[in-house]
């Protein structure tokens, strides 16, 4: 999935907070669940408008961004 298929930000949706595309679920919510020790399945149960593919793609995008940042910091 592309960035645009996973994440969108629009001033009229939660004041521009990045959300899962087509939803009002902030991307940050996924990270907060995982940081709290919750499983991905728990997040998906609580936010049924987010698909597993979207959540995994968001994590992949975050990993790629962190990897790119790490390689440019050397």
SSE layout and pairings?
Layout lengths: L2 H4 E2 L10 E2 L6 H9 L4 H7 L5 H21 L2
Antiparallel strand pairs: 1-2
Quote the average pLDDT: 92
CATH class: Mainly Alpha
Topology-level CATH name: Arc Repressor Mutant, subunit A
- Would you identify the CATH architecture? Orthogonal Bundle
Q: Which geometry do the CA atoms define?
A: globular
The total count of helices amounts to 4
Residue share in β-strands? 5-15%
The CATH homologous superfamily is termed: Winged helix-like DNA-binding domain superfamily/Winged helix DNA-binding domain
Number of strands: 2
Give the biggest beta sheet: 2 strands, antiparallel
Terminal Cα separation, in Å? Answer: 29 Å
Strand order of the largest sheet: 1-2
Q: Pick out the low-confidence regions.
A: none
Give me the secondary-structure category.
mainly alpha
What does the radius of gyration come to?
Answer: 13 Å
Q: How many domains comprise the coordinates?
A: 1
Helices and strands, in order, run as: HEEHHH
Describe what you observe in this structure.
With 74 residues, the chain is mainly alpha-helical. The protein has one domain: Winged helix-like DNA-binding domain superfamily/Winged helix DNA-binding domain (Arc Repressor Mutant, subunit A, Orthogonal Bundle). The chain has four helices and two strands. The chain has helices spanning 3-6, 27-35, 40-46, 52-72, and strands at 7-8, 19-20. Strands 1-2 form a two-stranded antiparallel sheet. The longest helix has 21 residues, at 52-72. It starts with a helix and ends with a helix.
């Amino acid at each position: 999935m592309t960035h645009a298929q996973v994440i969108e930000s629009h001033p009229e949706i939660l004041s521009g907070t990045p959300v899962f595309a087509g939803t009002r679920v902030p991307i940050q919510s996924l990270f907060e669940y995982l940081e709290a020790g919750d499983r991905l399945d728990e997040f998906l149960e609580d936010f049924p408008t987010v698909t597993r593919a979207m959540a995994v793609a968001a994590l992949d995008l975050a990993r790629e961004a962190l990897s790119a940042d790490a390689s440019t910091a050397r």
